[in-house]
Structures are given as structure tokens and as C-alpha cells.
Amino acid sequence: MxxxxxxxxxxxxxxxxxxxxxxxxxxxxxxxxFPVTENLGLAMLSAMVIASSGMIINDYFDRFIDAxxxxxxxxxxxxxxxxxxxxxxxxxxxxxxxxxxLINDMTAIIALSAAVLLILYSWFFxxxxxxxxxxxxxxxxxxxxxxxxxxxxxxxxLNISVLFTLAFLSTLAREIYxxxxxxxxxxxxxxxxxxxxxxxxxxxVAGLFALLAVIASPxxxxxxxxxxxxxxxxxxADLIFVYIVFSGVVxxxxxSKELKIAQLIALISFLIGM
Length: 274
What we know:
Layout: H1 4-11, H2 13-31, H3 38-61, H4 63-69, H5 82-101, H6 105-123, H7 131-152, H8 158-181, H9 183-186, H10 193-197, H11 199-216, H12 219-222, H13 228-251, H14 256-273
Helix pairs in contact: 2-3, 2-7, 2-14, 3-5, 3-6, 3-7, 5-6, 6-7, 7-8, 8-11, 8-14, 11-13, 13-14
């Protein structure tokens, strides 16, 4: 019998929703409006489907690790069979790329690239210091590029490039903070940045990326793509970012979940600014 709760636990619905939201923001910013079109729906669905498959394939490759440090996870606990997770991830990846192909060739290329990166990350690069962090950050930034490609068949316009950079920097900071949080458990199975340069230096590196995102956050307003409302609302996210950096460097405390909330506020700021 299918364990719905176990599958939902693997899928991490909040991450999937944020993927769809990222694509929508890239789409709306590219067309400078809020049209609800078939391409928008296909792009959001494609991104959410590929993100879902990425979650599943990650759990599949991590099943032996999780058996030692997170035995309650769906696969090691026996609630989901490993072969079923593998088959589901492959099928869902295919559906996600196919949905992107229905939009245009550029979205198909981006979707296929993102899917390959997710597989490579789960299979190998998740256990490689900083490289795995960069892949996660890159895929997050590509959500906005994907939205632009769905709207215009073009990529990396000036506004989208800025948004890509902001997403990359903030996500990279969050991934490093997460590695700092998980350093004790990760010692058994993988080598992360905190293990290479130490916890304190990793805090400084993550803080640097977060502060670069804060410094760059006014650029979309300066370029004229967003209204003053964006600047006001993104300031809330910036304050959270700064507090997290201060807490990490001065107090040695990590707030990776709060950083994710700040990222969500920053996303919503783009919608407000438009």
C-alpha cells in the first residue's frame, strides 16, 4: 500500500512551491506584467515536477547514509522501497523535461540541464566541499532564467541576471550554513566545507555571500525594473540576512531555516515591486 505521508516527506512541498514561485517571478519580470498564460503554467509545473524528482533521487542516493544517521527517513525506515523511489524519480524527471519541451527549445535545454545537475549532485557532488553547494545555488538561480525563457525564449537579460545572482549568493550562503549545522552528522559520510576550513571560517564565508546578496539587493530598483515598494519590502529580508550573518560571526549561531524565510520574503518583494 502506498504510504502517502512518506512520499510527501521525501518531496518537501515547501521547496517545490518555492520552485514554482521562482519561475513565476522570472516570467513576470521578463514580460513586465502578470499575464496568466499556458506557458507560465507549463513552466511552473515543469520546475515543480523536476524539483520533486530531485528530492526523491537525493533520498535514493542518500539511503545508506540515512540508514546510519537518519533511520527515520522514508527509504531506510522501509516506508518507501528504494527501487520504487528510483523508478519514480526517473519517470518524473522525464515528465518535467517533456513539459519544458512543450514550451520551447530553450526551456527544454534548461530543464534537461537542471535535471542532470540534480542527478550529479545527489550521486556524487553532495559529498564534495563547496561544489555541491554551488550546484544547489546554481539550480536555484536557474529557476528565474527558466521563467524568462518560457516568456520570451531569451535568457539572462539584465534584470534576470541580477535576480539570478541574488538567488545564487543567498542560496550558497544558506547551503554553507546548513553544512555548519550538520557538521557532526556529516563527518561519518561526507566532507563539507566546515570540515576543510573549520566551522568559524565557514561562517565567515557564508556571511560574505549573504552580505554580497544584501549589497546587491537594491540593484533591481536602481535599474528601473521595480518600484520603490520592492526596495521597502526587500529591506525586511536584508535585515534578517544581516542579523543571521552577525549571529554567525559574533555569536557562532546558525539560522539556516530563518535564512530560507528571508529568501521567501525577498521573492515576494519582487512581486510587490512589479
